[in-house]
Structures are given as structure tokens and as C-alpha cells.
Design goal:
Elements lengths: L7 H12 L3 E3 H11 L2 H11 L6 H12 L9 E3 L5 H13 L7 E5 L2 H15 L6 H24 L3 E5 L4 H11 L5
Parallel strand pairs: 1-2, 3-4
Helix pairs in contact: 1-8, 2-3, 4-5
């Protein structure tokens, strides 16, 4: 977890490879659908371009389907999900029915000015239409309104692990490995 631009996707790819489990990114799933022009992609793009979250029903169905694949049986790493209190409830139901549980919820903490700079840079490098400056600011507002409350929820369940997300990728990865007591 963490605000847009905190490095969640970058670190999730590294950690999932280290653990040998799939990296499940709702953002990647949405972008794939957008680029393929699927009906879901068209709907998702409308929300993404406005800096809003894609509706829970669409997101939950995609995640439920992805978690049903055989490669998720030994475990998985979620990136960008859950983002709302309602999604937490749906995730809990999915995990229970599959006899899975969360081991930890990692929050990457970052300075907001750093986040805006990262996202503006990423937009210019990758040509991402969902990363205009106005959309970035709206995404940060939406994060603090809808996702930040999950931090307290997971903290109260003793699942939250907070790691400083600033610095070079390898340093952040090292902090995550240490915080989660993983074998590097």
C-alpha cells in the first residue's frame, strides 16, 4: 500500500520474484484492458483518466478471477488492491473461501512532493494518459479519502508493516526484506 507513485509496482515485482509468487497488479490489469479496447478497458479508462478509482464491482470481479488461477495456490502478492473498505471485505471473503490469509500488509511511506515528481517523470517517460498533473493531484486526494483508512484497519489487525519508500530501488528493497524478515 501507499499513495500513487510510492514505488508499489516496482517493489512488488522485485519481492514477488524473490518469493516465487505472482505479482497481481490491478493497475496492470486495467491498463491491459484499456490497451486492448475491451469493454472493461473502456469503462476503466473513463475513471482512470479522471483520477478516480474503478468501481469496486469491476475491480473485485477481476481480482476474484485472477486469484482463482492455479499459480496463486502457493501464494501471491497484491499490488493496488484493496483500495477501499468495501474491497477489504470482498478480499477477506475471497481469502476465506480459498483458505488463504494475509501474511502482511506493506505500506510504502513517501513524501508527497517526491510522489508528484515521480509521477510527472513517469508520465513523460511512459506516455501515460492517467498521469497528467491534475489527475495526479486528484489521485492523491482519492487515496487519502478512500485508501488511507485501510492503514489503520490493518494496523489494528497487527498486519501493517511500514517501510520508507524513498531512495534507490535496491535500498528500498533491502528495507522491505528486513522488515518482512525475508531471505534475500
Amino acid at each position: 500500500m501507499g499513495p500513487p507513485g510510492a514505488g508499489k509496482g516496482t517493489q512488488a515485482a522485485v519481492i514477488s520474484a524473490m518469493l516465487g509468487v505472482p505479482h497481481i497488479s490491478t493497475g496492470d490489469i486495467f491498463r491491459a484492458n484499456v490497451s486492448q479496447g475491451t469493454p472493461l478497458g473502456v469503462e476503466a479508462k473513463r475513471y482512470m483518466d479522471a483520477g478516480e478509482y474503478v468501481p469496486d464491482g469491476v475491480t473485485n470481479a477481476m481480482v476474484r478471477d485472477r486469484l482463482s488461477h492455479d499459480d496463486c495456490r502457493p501464494g501471491f502478492l497484491l499490488d493496488g488492491y484493496p483500495r477501499t473498505v468495501e474491497q477489504v471485505g470482498e478480499l477477506n471473503a475471497m481469502l476465506s473461501s480459498a483458505q488463504h490469509r494475509l501474511d502482511a500488509v506493506l505500506e510504502l511511506t513517501v513524501d508527497m512532493d517526491e510522489v508528484v515528481g515521480r509521477l510527472v517523470k513517469r508520465a513523460s517517460e511512459q506516455g501515460r494518459s492517467d498521469d497528467t498533473e491534475d489527475v495526479i493531484r486528484r489521485r492523491l486526494e482519492v487515496y487519502f479519502e478512500q485508501t488511507a483508512p485501510l492503514i489503520d484497519m490493518y494496523r489494528s489487525q497487527d498486519l501493517l508493516v511500514q517501510v520508507d519508500g524513498l531512495g534507490i530501488i535496491e535500498d528500498v528493497t533491502g528495507r522491505i526484506v528486513a522488515a518482512l524478515s525475508l531471505e534475500a
